[in-house]
Structures are given as structure tokens and as C-alpha cells.
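Appendix B, example 12.
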Amino acid sequence: MKKLSCAISALFLVSCGSTQLVETKTSPAGPDGVQGKIVEEKPTVKTVDATGTTFTDADRVGEIMNYLASDDLKGRDSGSEGIEMAANYIKNYFKSYQVKPYFDSYLDTLSNFKKTSYNVVGVVEGNDPDLKKEYIVIGAHYDHIGTIAPENGDFIANGANDNASGTTTVMELARYFGTKKNNKRSLIFALFSAEEKGLLGSEHLAKKMKEQDLNLYTMLNFEMTGVPLKGKDYFVYITGYDNSNLAEVSNTYAKENLVGFLPTAKEYNLFQRSDNYPFHKQFGVPSHTYCTFDFTNFAHYHKVGDEVDLMDFGHMAAFVNKIIPVLEGIANAPTQEIKITSK
């Protein structure tokens, strides 16, 4: 997330056949001039998830996370070689699963950051002749803070939870809709750079889409979903809980108490601290972030300790499987169900 206040810093102190991502290989430099990884698959066996959905699993999630949060990417600082590698990896992933580039290229260069940095933006067009004119942005930031002062000889802030986890969630959702093509509304999958510099990637894209008069219905963002909440009767919270009825809509489609209210999120105004906020400002539509980081379940925010071996891949896979019917419901409902709450 965007750098938090001192108050928050103080708080820190106290079986069916399917396919699975199994390996990657380095690709030659492409037209964008960067190298990355190409997705390869082979058959494997999945067990049925508790939700009844078997789309993804811990092994597949782990393969993506192990690349995005690897030392090779050197913390994915915006404008660095490492984040270009990540951008190319995401681009190849989109291409592999029939997610088209939203612009002329998957890589959209930021206009508000001095170093060359890219958002990675793909689209799955809706299959309804009318509803496809309405768009849903599904996003996460894929940058982190790069290298920092060393701790015990480690100086790479790998950013596994922040935010390789949210990035992986969006990539798997893009794979689902890219292959199923069962969405009536059009879905834009956006991975943002320069969030850690002040939400610059999402600000760039929101402004650009507003200037193009995009018919945006809602923006759904994913941030720090790598470890489960503890002691809660819900699976995930959303920022700006009171701003719309998204939680109610989500829980209806999930058929469980999936989304809850985290008082700390409201206390520290997390609604304004992630990539949902620029879309709220530009479009005035329901714009929220799904998150499972609650300030008590992960102690390595913006530290070198934010490592992939601390992530719960089973939890992450379960979240993807649980959120799929929610997004299907929102994308396919005959009317726009998510409404801004009157204040």
C-alpha cells in the first residue's frame, strides 16, 4: 500500500483433471525490449476446493508468486530492470490466456513518473451486445520499493505480500475470464506501476480512461492478500466499506460471509491509500480494495522480511476461487447492482 502514516507505523511496533502452471523459461527480448518468462503448462491433478470451485490451487499460485517475489526482480522498483521483467511476465501471461491488450500494447507508459514505467493493461470484451459497453476495472499494483537498507545481509524488499499477492490474484482472474469468456460486461485487467511513489500508475490510467470517456461501472482492486485474517468471521475486508453496497453484493454471490468490515481500515482511511482511489476521484463510481492485511497478521510491511516463504498459497488460491462467482455475478447481472451509498 501507499506509505502509511506514523500512527500506523507505531501500530506495527507494538480430484478432477486440470492444468497447472509448472515451469517457466526465459523468453528472448521481445518488441518491448525486455525479457521475461513464458508460461508453460502440463496436466496435473487438483482436489476440490471447499468452495466447490477447482479453478486454481496453491501450487499454481506459488509458481507465480515465486517469480514475482524472487531476488531476480530486485524488489520491482518502478523504473528498474526488475519491474520491466515483471511487466513482460504479466504481458506474456495475458497473451497466453487470450486477454487482449486494452491499448495498442499491453504496456502503457506512465506520463507522470520521470523514469520509464508501465502499467500492464488487458481486456476481455463482454459477450453481450449492450452490456459489453459497460466496463469493470480489476486491478492491483505490481511494483514495490526495490532495495533498501540491509537487515542481516538482505537488502532486497521482495514485496511478496505487498503486492505480488494482489498481482497474482488479478493474473489468475484474468486467466479465468480470458479462457471462459463468460462475462457479459467488459473486464479490464490492470496491473499498476508506481503505486509506491504515490498511486501514480492508477492515477495515470484513471485520468487517461476518463479523458477517453470510458463507461466505467466499478473498480475492484486487490491489495496484500497473501496471508489470512485471524479471529474474524469474514474472509476479506474492503476499504471504503460504507461507501457502497459492494460487501452485500459480494456476500450474496459468494453465498457466505466473504466480505466484512475492518474498523482499522476506516480509522486510518485506507480507502484513499490504494489504487481504487484515483478511479473514485475521476469517475465517482464504486471503487474499493479487497485486502486481508489487518496490521496484526503480518509484520514485514516495507521490510526485507516480506518474503514469499511467509505467504499462504492455499489461502490465496481459496480467495481466487471464492471471488470468481462474485465477479461473474457482478459482470453478468442485468442491471448495475453496486450502488454508491447516500450520505
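Confidence is low (pLDDT under 50) at residues 1-51. The first helix runs from residue 6 to 13.
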